[in-house]
Design a protein that fits this description.
Blueprint lengths: L4 E7 L6 E3 L3 E4 L9 E3 L10 E8 L5 E7 L1
Antiparallel strand pairs: 1-3, 1-5, 2-4, 5-6
Amino acid sequence: GDTALTWNATIQSPRPWLTARNNSGTVPAGLAATIPLSVNPAGLPPGDYQALLTITTDGAQAIQTVTVFF
């Protein structure tokens, strides 16, 4: 697009072992953004873990849900 895009990231059903380093931001027109995630497995028993990260934009132009596994 030709305008900047403001976004928000939310971890659904908060998981104490997962954090998004940036929960919101603005992407200049024509560029992309990366949302760094941190996983802290301390105290978790062995197993499979997953979470949903929902990304929304200003004006509800798009909603993207990403599944995170580790």
